[in-house]
Write a structure and sequence with these properties.
Blueprint: H1 2-23, H2 25-33, H3 37-49, H4 57-68, H5 73-85, H6 93-104, H7 109-117, H8 154-166, H9 174-184, H10 205-210, H11 219-236, H12 241-250, H13 252-258, H14 265-278, H15 318-325
């Protein structure tokens, strides 16, 4: 009789937990999408095994994915295990190895053991998965209002005509080239700076020689050289307008050294001015005239996350139990730096 009462009590608790989940499943799911990786992993384990909630491999995979992409080792292990066992997905040893390898590289012993048992652990594959989609409406992307230009002189009108003719040959938007010329020389074909930058697009002798410009005061030659350099920078920085402009002003090596726009007052003012005049933060793809820059940026991760108040509290031992019972089935420009701002972290 006592055993029967206990069984009934546990059944009622299980049904109640499922009812609480079902009554607010959408709201709870939206909160889980934004939760901490440890909480996401705990609830993914619940969905995987149907503990207190209806079993749902799809939601389990998505929550594991969200936590794993943020570097949570238990979630990376769980994804590897699901791919290795074909649990809720088509079995994929290469994908399993990719996730086990990420966790093993962080010192996770179970992941190293599982990796050693796979048929082809060294098969190269990038770890991938499908994260849950946050349905929260997002504001439209920022688009800066471009400044409309009207030629102030016949000379500027001639330059603009040349730009409209030549820019498409380099895959460049004329508006970007014109914004650079306006900032560099003010459309003065004979402009020369104290650093010996010359002509419309202010080419220094090294850049002019690099792109085959013999007479930098010849408007056509100068435009060819300046546009060649702009195209190269856009290819190098993969269309990022701010990095391209920073490279044009301070040199691409300075951008690499600082991992972004260098902390030079002149360069930052230059980038800000041209970006606002151009009106866009990304340029359409250009010809791949060089390999992309070796820049690595950490993901944008919020330091705080909302609590999941609508869900029943998960057990802290779920992930540990799951990991224990799983097995694999057999088979230099002279600019003066200013104090740099703290760069935000960016997505893997």
């Amino acid at each position: 009789m006592i055993k029967l009462q206990c069984c009934l009590a546990f059944s009622i608790i299980g049904v109640y937990g499922s009812a609480v989940y079902g009554a607010s499943s959408d709201l709870s799911w939206y909160k889980l999408i934004k939760e901490k990786p440890a909480v996401q992993t705990e609830w993914a384990t619940r969905f995987e095994h149907g503990e207190g909630v209806p079993q749902d491999y799809g939601r389990a995979m998505q929550l594991y994915c969200a936590a794993a992409r943020r570097g949570h080792v238990p979630a990376q292990y769980q994804l590897g295990w699901m791919f290795a066992n074909g649990r809720g997905v088509v079995r994929d040893d290469a994908q399993a190895a990719a996730w086990f390898r990420l966790a093993a590289n962080k010192g996770d012993t179970p992941s190293r053991q599982m990796l050693a048992r796979l048929a082809a652990p060294n098969q190269a594959r990038r770890a991938s998965c499908a994260e849950p989609v946050d349905p929260t409406p997002k504001p439209p992307p920022l688009r800066l209002a471009p400044v409309r230009r009207t030629p102030s002189s016949p000379e500027q009108a001639r330059v603009e005509t040349l730009v409209m003719q030549l820019a498409p040959k380099y895959g460049l938007q004329p508006s970007l080239v014109l914004a650079v010329i306006e900032a560099e020389s003010g459309f003065n074909t004979q402009a020369r700076s104290f650093k010996n930058a010359q002509g419309l697009m202010q080419l220094i002798p090294q850049t002019a020689a690099r792109f085959g410009v013999q007479n930098p005061y010849d408007p056509v030659q100068n435009l060819h050289g300046g546009m060649s350099y702009l195209r190269w920078l856009l290819a190098y920085f993969q269309g990022d307008v701010r990095l391209t402009l920073a490279g044009y002003n301070a040199g691409e090596k300075a951008v690499l050294r600082y991992g972004g726009v260098p902390p030079y007052a002149e360069t930052r003012a230059y980038v800000e001015k041209i970006t606002r005049n151009y009106g866009q933060l990304a340029h359409p793809p250009v010809a791949p005239v060089t390999r992309p820059a070796p820049l690595s940026r950490p993901p944008l991760v919020s330091a705080t996350f909302p609590a999941v108040s609508a869900l029943p509290a998960p057990s802290a031992e779920l992930v540990g139990r799951s990991r224990q019972k799983q097995t694999l089935p057999q088979s230099g420009n002279g600019l003066v730096p200013i104090q740099p701002a703290i760069a935000p972290a960016s997505l893997p």
